[in-house]
Amino acid sequence: MKLRKLMFVLPNLFTVTSIFCGFYAITLCSGEATPVQLYQAALAILFAMFFDGFDGRVARLTKTQSDFGMQLDSLADVMSFGAAPALLVYKWALAPMGFWGLFISFAFMACGAMRLARFNVIAMRNPHGGGGSFFVGLPIPLAAGVLVSLIISHHVASQGEALGDGARLPVALAAGALSLLMVSTVRYRTFKDARPGRKSALVFMAMALTGGFIAQQFHPAWVLVTYFFAYLVMGLVESAVSVRSRLASRKVGAGAGAVAAVAVAAELDEDDDEDSEANAAPDDGPAYL
After folding, report:
1. What are the tens digits of pLDDT across the range 72-113?
2. CATH number of 2-193, picked from 3.30.420.100, 1.20.120.1760, 1.10.3210.10, 1.10.760.10
3. Based on C-alpha coordinates, what's the Rg of the chain?
4. Vertex 88, ends 36 and 145: CA angle to 5°?
C-alpha cells in the first residue's frame, strides 16, 4: 500500500523538477543578465521541457493520473514555459523596445496561461479528450521551445555576442505570432498514436538527414530551430488543408441540397398542375336539360 502511494509521488517529482528549472532560469535572467547567463537560462528551460515531457508518461505508465497532477502540471507550465521564457526573451531582445517589448513579453505569458486554462476546461468536461491526436492551439512548452532554440542557436553561432539591434523586430514578431498561435484553434499533432513501423522509420530518417544537412551547410546550432519551426509549419498546413476540405464539403452539401430543393419544388409544381386540371370547371357548351 505504501509503495502504491509512493508511485503517485513519482510523476509529481518530474513536475516539481520542471518548476525548479523554470525558477532557476528566472533567477539567471534577473538583474543585469549577461549573454552567458541568458544562454544558461535557455538551457534550464530546455531541461524543464525534458522533465515536463516525462511526467505525464510516467503517470500513464504507473497508472497514477490524478486531478492534482493535472493542475500541478499546468501551474508548472505557467512558470517554466510562460513566465521564464517571457522574461528571458525580454532581457535578450525586447528590453530596448520599451513599452512594446514589455507588452509583447507579457502577452506571451498571458496567452500561454489562457491556453492552459482552456485545455483544463476541455479536460474537465471530457476526461478522455486529452488523449486525442491533436492539440487545440500551440502547446506552451513548444512555444517556449521556439524562443529557447533561437536564443541557444544565436549564442552558439555568434560565440556569445549580444543580439544586434536589427534582429529585435523579427524576434518581437516571432514572440507575437507564438502568442496568437497558443490561443488560436490551429490543431497540432500530439504524436501519441505514433507506433514503431515503416512510416515512423521513414520520418525519423528524413528528420535525421535534414538535421545533418543543416548542420553541415550552416551550423549545428540551427538544427533545433529547424525542428521547432517545422512543427509550427506542419500544424498550420494541416489546419489549412482541414479548413479547405470542410469548406469544399459544405459547398458540395449545399449544392446537393439546392438540387434536392429544386427537384422537390418541381414535383410540387407538377402535383399542383395535376390538381388544378382535375378541379377545373368544364368549358361552356350546350346545356343539357
Report:
1. 998 999 999 999 999 999 999 999 999 999 999 999 999 999
2. 1.20.120.1760
3. 29
4. 100
Full-model pTM: 0.79
Q: Which three cell numbers stand for residue 253?
A: 452539401
* Domain ranges for the chain: 2-193
CB 182 within 8 A of CB 82: no
Amino acid identity, position 246: R
Q: Assess contact for 235 and 188: CB atoms under 8 A.
A: yes
Rounded to the nearest 10 degrees, how much is the dihedral formed by the CA atoms of 231, 71, 51, 156?
50
Q: pLDDT, tens digit, for every residue of 151-166?
A: 999 998 888 888 888 8
Helix axes of 2-29 and 67-78: crossing angle, nearest 10 degrees: 10
Alpha-carbon span 51 to 21, nearest angstrom: 9
DSSP state of 139: -
Residue 136, H or E segment? strand 134-136
CB-based contacts of 249-258 (< 8 A; 24+ apart in sequence): none
Within 10 angstroms of residue 9's Cβ, the number of other Cβ atoms is 10
